[in-house]
């Protein structure tokens, strides 16, 4: 595994700019520096489950950014309803960025299919190797909801991440990538949206 520096991680993960708490953003980047090399190169799935663009090379990376954008958009509603606060929104965006970083195994191993416990595997990585709050690990662990053997979402942050993952995974829905779109993802022909928190 080749460690990426902070500037390169910010370029690859423009959704980090959606996190208002800079300390949390840096911790997400630190955790993402441990992502296996395959995370940046493989499709999100080989089947019909994800958006067609995410079934292409680099689709898992793109899917991650799409989930973060959906969390940001849905987060407005959760905030207005009083279900989460600004910290909860930041935590949900952090969980979205991290949620599938061990989807096909750990380190640089690449298995042929997604691990049915990849949600809990990544949550364990977060708990053991980062300074991120347990609430983020819990949201990652629950992002699959009822489809795998992991825990179902219980808190509003967990529900937000799970719902965003469901939306971003549907072939008939096309969420946007956060700008600036990494050059490697431009050929996926997905729409984009400015990351503007002002």
Structure notes:
The chain has one domain: Hypothetical protein af1432, CATH 1.10.3210. 44% of the residues are buried. The model has no long low-confidence stretch (mean pLDDT 90). The chain contains seven helices and two strands; from the N terminus they run αααααααββ. It has a two-stranded parallel ribbon with strand order 1-2. It is mainly alpha-helical. The N and C termini lie far apart (36 Å). This is HD domain-containing protein. InterPro entries: HD_domain. It comes from Halococcoides cellulosivorans.
Helices and strands, in N-to-C order? HHHHHHHEE
CATH hierarchy, class: Mainly Alpha
Helical content band: 40-55%
Largest sheet: 2 strands, parallel
Strand order of the largest sheet: 1-2
Provide the CATH architecture: Orthogonal Bundle
The end-to-end distance, rounded to whole angstroms, is: 36 Å
Secondary-structure blueprint of this entry?
Elements: H1 6-12, H2 22-32, H3 59-80, H4 86-98, H5 118-129, H6 134-141, H7 156-169, E1 177-178, E2 192-193
Parallel strand pairs: 1-2
Helix pairs in contact: 2-4, 3-4, 3-7, 4-6, 4-7, 5-6, 6-7
Organism: Halococcoides cellulosivorans
Domain HD: 61-168
Region (Disordered): 171-198
List its traits.
mainly alpha; Hypothetical protein af1432; single chain; 198 residues; 7 helices; two-stranded parallel sheet
């Amino acid at each position: 595994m080749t460690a990426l520096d902070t500037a390169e991680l910010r370029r690859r993960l423009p959704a980090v700019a959606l996190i208002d708490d800079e300390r949390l953003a840096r911790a997400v980047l630190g955790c993402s520096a441990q992502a296996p090399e395959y995370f940046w190169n493989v499709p999100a799935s080989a089947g019909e489950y994800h958006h067609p663009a995410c079934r292409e090379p680099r689709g898992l990376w793109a899917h991650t950014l799409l989930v973060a954008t959906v969390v940001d958009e849905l987060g407005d509603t959760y905030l207005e309803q009083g279900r989460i606060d600004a910290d909860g929104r930041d935590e949900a965006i952090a969980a979205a960025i991290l949620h599938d970083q061990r989807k096909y195994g750990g380190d640089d191993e690449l298995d042929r299919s997604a691990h049915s416990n990849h949600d809990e595997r990544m949550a364990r990585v977060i708990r053991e190797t980062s300074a991120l709050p347990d609430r983020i690990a819990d949201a990652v662990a629950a992002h699959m909801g009822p489809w795998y053997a992991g825990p179902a979402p219980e808190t509003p942050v967990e529900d937000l991440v799970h719902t965003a993952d469901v939306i971003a995974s549907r072939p008939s829905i096309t969420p946007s990538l956060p700008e600036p779109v990494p050059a490697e993802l431009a050929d996926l022909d997905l729409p984009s949206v400015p990351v503007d928190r002002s």
